[in-house]
Amino acid sequence: MSNVYALIGGSRLDHLSRLEGRMIDRIDTPYGKEPVELTRGQIDGLEVVFLSRHGVKEKKPPHMINYRANIWALSTFKPKAIIALASVGAVLVEDEIGTVAIPDQIIDYTWGRETSYNTGKESVINFIDFTYPFDMDLRDEIVRMADIMNLPIVDGGTYAVTQGPRLETAAEIDRIDRDGGHYVGMTLMPEACLAKELNLPYAAICQVVNPAAGRGASANSVEIASNDEELNKVTDQCVDLAIKTFVE
Ligand code: HPA
């Protein structure tokens, strides 16, 4: 049985400085010519494989990420769990910048992405049950660990996935709000359903980095803080939360 855990970093985290005995693997996949670069190592005695979702040297925008290759490459390590980190905009005004949320639902507004490992050549179609897009046990463990760590988080919420890379219009955010979306980002789909197809327990830790379009105090544009010290601190806390969840 494998003893490996996988962490996916988003736009705020493209390497994991805490990995000891770090090794870089470039994994060839059936899903394109470019290998997927993963970093492996130990944290607190735990085997961790880290994937920078957008790539390492060349940064792929959300609509150009090869999600199938990414998740397939991770699957070769048979990880016990995958925790994905993601930056989001807040649809609800009460969710301030720096809020950490563990979403439990997804609404997918993306289009044109490769969303399945079904090729049409199999004798059986893999119709996954996606009622609960995240692994509920893994989510519970993250929430429980946040409690132990005294880290304030929002337990639950619906992550709306937009196509990007442009941000949304104010009317699009109003629509997401009416649809029941709480957080808006561009990357957890098709990542979540691909992990589900491969039977890999997958959950996400989201960090609010801006009010969504039309929701900010001064908004006719969305400013996404990228290097703010406070936000970097929150990103570190999210990594810590993921690792401590794995260790438990
Ligand atoms: N919209 C979509 N994706 C995002 C946002 C946003 O406001 N902030 C961070 N990722």
In short:
InterPro entries: MTAP, Nucleoside_phosphorylase_d, Nucleoside_phosphorylase_sf. The chain has 248 residues and is an alpha/beta fold.
Written overview of the protein:
The structure is a single chain. With 248 residues, the chain is of the alpha/beta class. Helices cover 25% and strands 26% of the residues. It contains 5 helices and 11 strands, in the order E-E-E-E-H-E-E-E-H-E-E-H-E-H-E-H. Strand 3 and strand 4 (46-52) form a beta hairpin. Helix 1 crosses helix 4 (188-197) and helix 2 (136-148) crosses helix 5 (229-247). The longest helix is centred in the last third of the chain and has 19 residues, at 229-247. The protein is globular and about 45 Å long. The chain starts with a strand and ends with a helix. The mean pLDDT is 94. Bound molecules: hypoxanthine. Hypoxanthine is lined by residues 87-89, 162, 167-168, 184-186, 209-210, 212, 222, 224.
Keywords:
Nucleoside_phosphorylase_sf; binds hypoxanthine; 5 helices; alpha/beta; EC 2.4.2.44; 248 residues; globular; eleven-stranded mixed β-sheet
Topology:
Layout: E1 4-9, E2 20-27, E3 36-43, E4 46-52, H1 67-75, E5 81-90, E6 100-102, E7 105-108, H2 136-148, E8 154-155, E9 158-161, H3 170-179, E10 183-185, H4 188-197, E11 202-211, H5 229-247
Helix pairs in contact: 1-4, 2-5
The chain binds hypoxanthine.
Hypoxanthine binds next to strand 5, strand 10 and strand 11.
Helical residues, percent: 10-25%
The low-confidence parts are: none
For the report, how would you describe the main beta sheet? 11 strands, mixed
Question: What is the terminal separation in angstroms?
Answer: 17 Å
Number of helices: 5
Overall average residue pLDDT: 94
- Please provide the count of β strands: 11
Helices and strands, in order, run as EEEEHEEEHEEHEHEH
Shape, please? globular
Backbone CA Rg:
17 Å
Tell me which ligands are bound: hypoxanthine
Strand content: 25-35%
Helix/strand-derived class? alpha/beta
